[in-house]
Amino acid sequence: MKILAIGDIVGRCGREYVYRNLFKIRKKYNIDFVVANGENAAETNGINPEIADRLVERGVDIITMGNHTFSCKNGEIAMEENRHLVRPLNFPPELEGRGYVETNLGFASVAVINLVGRVNMGPADCPFHAVDAALKKIDTDIIIVDMHAEATSERRAMGFFLDGRVQIVFGTHTHVQTADEQILPGGTGYISDLGMTGVKDSVIGTKKEVALEHFIKSGKRVKFTKETEGDVRLSGCIFEIDNKTKKVTGVMRVNIEGEL
Ligand SMILES: [Fe+2]
Ligand SMILES: [Fe+2]
User: Fold this and answer.
1) Which letter does DSSP use for residue 37 in this model?
2) Any catalytic annotation for residue 148?
């Protein structure tokens, strides 16, 4: 089977690209299951119930989140109501939503776990202890982990921590795709960052003029706005898994542009 993992979908341009093209991408690459990071899908970051529903309607099986999980109005409602959404497992347990979801595709059962890092990120419980405890409860054929973090070191450490215990560990959050895709020694398919799905000529999704003002006129408060014009690139990774053995046999980065 083939699993497509899509990097952070950013704003209107990112999500509309997914709405228009994901079914065609699924067909072209023979994809069985799609997991996408949606923490920046709304204009304010975060996600609302309408956007979450539409992404699922348009071919995303599971949406993972991150530090921006609750950045959008009605984000809590989305987390509570949409069973396709998963937010960081190592957030406090009393927060809305769930840290992992299990689904059955008929020929395989799949769990998707979302974690958030702690290096240069907001406060959160230890992702290593949290995932360790969750793995004792999860009993699916395939386990996928989105490690949403700033530091590549923390993400790679998580890759090795979970190597041989889950099929896939990918990173999200920094919005720039890394070129370290590999099958780790224990068999886990890994990449430090999937990249993002949004306007290519932007600063990680933010309008470049706004980002420049932020850095050049440091000290001045700048309102961040997402880029809403320009060509979109969908970045991610396709993981191939043997249907019988459930072992990862291939990891391929993808960067898709233009209408399919
Ligand atoms: Fe993000
Ligand atoms: Fe993030």
Assistant:
1) E
2) no
Spot the catalytic one: 68, 84, 148, 175: 68
What's the pLDDT tens digit per position in 28-70? 999 999 999 999 999 999 999 999 999 999 999 999 999 999 9
In degrees, to the nearest 5, what angle opens at C-alpha 226 toward C-alphas 221 and 230?
Answer: 135
Q: How many A from CA of 84 to the centre of ligand 1?
A: 18
| CA of residue 88 to ligand 1 center, whole Å | 13
For residues 10 and 198, the answer to whether their CB atoms sit within 8 Å is yes
* CA 68–ligand 1 middle distance (angstroms): 7
Measured in Å, residue 69 CA sits from the centre of ligand 2 at 8
Cβ atoms of residues 18 and 48 within 8 Å: no
For the chain, which domains are there? 2-257 (3.60.21.10)
Cα dihedral value 243, 245, 249, 254, nearest 10: 40
Q: What tens digit of pLDDT does each residue of 97-141 get?
A: 999 999 999 999 999 999 999 999 999 999 999 999 999 999 999
CA angle 123, 55, 82 (to 5 degrees): 60
Residues with CB under 5 Å of ion ligand 2 are: 66-67, 173
Q: Which tokens sit at 86?
A: 């998963």
